[in-house]
Predict the structure.
Amino acid sequence: MSVRYRRHRHSSDAAMRVLVDGTPLLGQRSGVGRYTAALLAELATRPEVDVTVTAFTARGQAALRAAVPRGVRVRGGPVPARALRAAWWRCDWPPVELLAGSADVLHATNFVLPPSRRARGVVTIHDLAFLDRPDDLAPQQRDLPSLVCSSVARAAVVCTPSGTVAEQVAWRLDVPRERIVVTPLGVDQEWQDACPPTPELRAKLRLPQRYLLFVGATQPRKGLDVLLEAHAAQPDLPPLVLAGPAGWGLPPTAATRVHTVGYLDEADLRSVVAGATALVLPSRDEGFGLPVLEAMATGVPVVCSDVPALREITGGLATLVPPGDRVALAAALRSVALGLAALGSVLDTGHDLTGAADRREHAAGYTWRACASATVRAYGLARA
């Protein structure tokens, strides 16, 4: 077992003491949870930061200790999350030091930055979709717009996953651009090496031989309602598979050509993505679109909405359709899925006629190491 020695904070080479909100690590992980886990894994290897993790929840402390990287400390105890959010919305109390001890930098990984007495605040804002459509938020998150505005006001630095969100934060939340650091998300090497589902996994999940794939929580802004309509309008398309944690705002579908596999662990998710005919993300808004980049890393074609962040992340290598346009989405799905089927015999020659190599190369440019490096720069800027 490796041992991490804590340097004296007043020495000239002292590491920054960084307290990270690990609440997104608990339960079934959304994209924010996966971002938090990958970032922590990289930060744990950096000598310039001394990382401690906390969570603002009344349950899950044991699970938190099991979720953090080896050698990373966990501080804090059970706290009522809803009561905290209500207090932080109304005033700057209780400070994080009262809940989890002192630090040089406090990094809020999921929109909400607690008040602090001495720690300099860094908050990650993943998107601003909730400003335009607050009714799309889950009931327990309806206070998010007010909390984000308070958090941005408290923060010394705001991190965003894309340049698109950085510009939105600067404009819509009136944050000076020099206080914003873009920290693009990454793709693990395992995605580049992913293989289609084994016969055993295919049987376990009851996957068809060919399928279109949606990955994400079933929340309104993901455009799943439009996808279901577009898919139903084209009966010769491959079946549609839905993967991801349970969400809200959309009733379960009874369509016979739609198959829900639910939340998958990382290994199974990689295989299911690698075996898809195409990944589809018809979101009305996105801040980054990690499933799109992960699909590209496996070489799988992508059909997604023509929104600024997805244009930025896909680099001209995806089929883009206007958000909310069922007819355009149906046509794009048909073009990609049936076009690939027609190329089947040609693809066996080993020539890449689908652009898979270009997609893999593009995705390889996004790494968690680079995300961590940009984040550490944000910490330094916060302390400057």
About this structure: The two ends are 35 Å apart (CA to CA).
